[in-house]
Design a protein that fits this description.
By secondary structure, this protein is mostly helical. 72% of the residues lie in helices and 1% in strands. The chain is elongated and about 120 Å long.
């Protein structure tokens, strides 16, 4: 460019050339832009010569127009032009920050470079981040006018698609400037939409979402959720909804998240919004369950829409709505309402349309209904036990466990019906194994445990044990009402799983509660003495017989004293030890023979099962 007069003339010529290029590239096609990508490097050289000269504004405008082409972007990056423009931005922001809200050449350069950032952010985000673009964007959000803020917010929205970049935004203090720039009272719809898009991405990271809420996001999201004017109002409401949904996953802010205005917005959006919006609202409400006032009034309005989605919605919506039924509607009044409205038929229809590996949520929902004292009878009439029994062959162990739990719950109301539908080769699933306690898991473990406790409690309240004793049994045992109540309460305390029987471990607990000291052999003898059906456990009738005759079990008077001394005391224990020693070889031989027979039976059972399955395959 020379010096003195020549330099001035050459600057004017460069400004004119840059202006001509900017004008030419304004309206030409992308194909034509590819053919002039060679001009990018000269434009950048002109830009950095004198950032206060009008030629800088013209050259930056030409670069802005060229960035519409991917080929031009690659040339821009390949010629190492991005660090140069970043240095220009640094100099302008440090010297002319007060000029960013009034028209001038410096502001034009800043706006044009910011527009270049916006285009590059869609395809080359990390190249931008590594040259300090986030720092520039945060500064422009603080100091720029609305057009500048709109460009910058759009750039940050594109960058925020990468959550690692979101963490850098948080480090540079972008939260508060974004919240201010996204306020509809301070900006336009485009800026608000872009800003909310970036805020939504920030809220996906729980640690950052907590800071977003603490710095005032909830009032902003209230405004966005209730915005019904303008061309972009629908998109703004959706962004606000997604941001709230992500924030609802942060435990620390759930209590402050749902305000009366947000409740109003959620109700309106659920009634008139898209299916995607409804699904987001359902997830949001499940996350904040029992954490805000007015929940009952809100969920009451959702009962029928949820039932409709379960009947007619796509699979994802049906699955989600069934989860919502279990979580949000936790009273027996709701259970009765859903059954009256045909929820059981809808669940069975969903189960028939799904594969075996997608049955988890419907089964949990059936367990949810089983908590009601009388609904299990309705489930049995609908054939739920048959459907659950068929799923015992499922390969997914969680689904098998849930089916076992459901069938056990139904068996408390009609054990014969459940026993009939369970395949013979699957009955082992219902045998109690103290060495391998069943863990009710999956993501619904907590719900299932709550349901089981309530189901067992219902059966306790219904005095189902009394159905076992006939009037003749009552007469034969000479039971009074007080004795029956006492025996019933004791049995229920010991039979925690409502299985209807007491095994030797539960019998041992009974002896401890009664203050009796018995070793394992005495307990076994006691069990064999009263186990009249040889089932290996005591049912309620056998338990009552034992308890009724407990005081006179060893006789009375001198006979009782003699029997207790010989059979219960040290003499009795020594006698049992001597008997085992004297008959040691016989006992060991019997145990060996029993083990052999047991193994033979197991092998025979396995062979029969294999032949049965081979027959099915053939």
């Amino acid at each position: 460019f020379g010096t003195g007069e020549n330099k001035h003339k050459n600057y004017i010529a460069a400004a004119a050339a840059a202006s001509a290029i900017a004008e030419k590239t304004k309206n030409i096609s992308l194909q034509e832009l590819k053919t002039i990508d060679w001009i990018i490097k000269p434009l950048v050289e002109v830009l950095q010569l004198d950032i206060e000269h009008p030629m800088a504004a013209k050259s930056s405008l030409a670069l802005r127009n060229l960035m519409r082409s991917r080929q031009c972007m690659l040339t821009f990056l390949g010629n190492n032009c991005l660090p140069v423009t970043a240095r220009v931005m640094d100099m302008l922001l440090s010297k002319r920050s007060s000029d960013l809200k009034r028209p001038c050449d410096a502001r034009s350069v800043v706006e044009n470079i910011a527009a270049c950032y916006r285009e590059l952010a869609q395809f080359y985000p990390w190249e931008l981040v590594n040259t300090g673009a986030i720092r520039h964007c945060v500064t422009l959000l603080k100091l720029g006018d609305v057009p500048l803020q709109t460009i910058v917010a759009t750039t940050m929205a594109s960058l925020s698609n990468d959550l690692e970049i979101c963490k850098q935004m948080f480090t540079y203090g972008a939260i508060r400037p974004l919240l201010i720039a996204s306020d509809v009272s301070n900006t336009n719809e485009a800026c608000m939409l872009a800003g909310l898009g970036c805020i939504t991405q920030l809220c996906r990271i729980p640690e950052i979402g907590l800071r977003v809420a603490q710095q005032g996001a909830v009032p902003l999201l209230e405004k966005g959720l209730l915005l019904y004017k303008g061309h972009g109002n629908l998109a703004i409401r959706e962004k606000s909804l997604y941001a709230l949904s992500f924030l609802s996953r942060v435990h620390e802010i759930r209590d402050m998240l749902i305000t009366p205005k947000i409740i109003r917005g959620l109700s309106a959006e659920f009634a008139a919004g898209s299916l995607a919006s409804r699904e987001v609202i359902i997830r949001l409400l499940m996350n904040v369950h029992r954490r805000y006032e007015g929940e009952k009034e809100l969920v009451d309005t959702l009962k029928d829409p949820l039932l409709e989605l379960i009947r007619t919605g796509p699979w994802s919506a049906k699955n989600l709505c069934l989860k919502a039924v279990c979580v949000l509607f936790d009273s027996n009044e709701y259970r009765e309402y859903f059954v009256e409205k045909g929820l059981v038929d809808s669940i069975l229809k969903v189960m028939s349309a799904k594969g075996e590996d997608l049955q988890e949520v419907p089964i949990v929902t059936l367990l949810y209904l089983s908590v009601h004292p009388t609904i299990p009878t309705h489930l049995l009439q609908k054939g739920v036990d048959v459907v659950a029994a068929e799923l015992l062959n499922c390969h997914d162990h969680i689904i098998r466990e849930l089916c076992v739990i459901l069938l056990k719950a139904l068996a408390l109301h009609d054990s014969e019906a459940v026993e009939k539908v369970v395949p013979a080769e699957k009955k082992y699933l219902f045998v109690k194994d103290i060495r391998n306690p069943q863990l009710y898991g999956g993501e619904y473990g907590g719900l299932v445990q709550d349901y089981l406790q309530t189901i067992v409690g219902n059966r306790h309240d219904q005095n189902y044990l009394r159905d076992i004793l006939t009037e003749q049994d009552m007469l034969d045992l000479q039971l009074t009402e007080e004795e029956l109540v006492s025996y019933e309460n004791t049995f229920l305390e010991l039979d925690a799983d409502c299985g209807g029987t007491l095994d030797i471990d539960e019998l041992k607990l009974l002896m401890v509660l009664m203050g009796e000291k018995m070793d394992q052999y005495e307990l076994q003898e006691l069990l064999e003495e009263y186990d009249t059906d040889h089932s290996g456990s005591l049912d309620f009738k056998e338990f009552v017989v034992m308890m009724k005759g407990w005081k006179t079990r060893f006789g009375t008077g001198v006979t009782k004293a003699y029997n207790e001394t010989v059979k219960r005391g040290h003499i009795g224990k020594a006698a049992r030890e001597f008997f085992r020693w004297w008959n040691k070889s016989k006992l060991e031989a019997a145990q060996v023979q029993e083990a052999k027979e047991s193994r033979a039976r197991a092998m025979q059972s396995n062979v029969e099962l294999q032949m049965r399955y081979l027959d099915h395959e053939n």
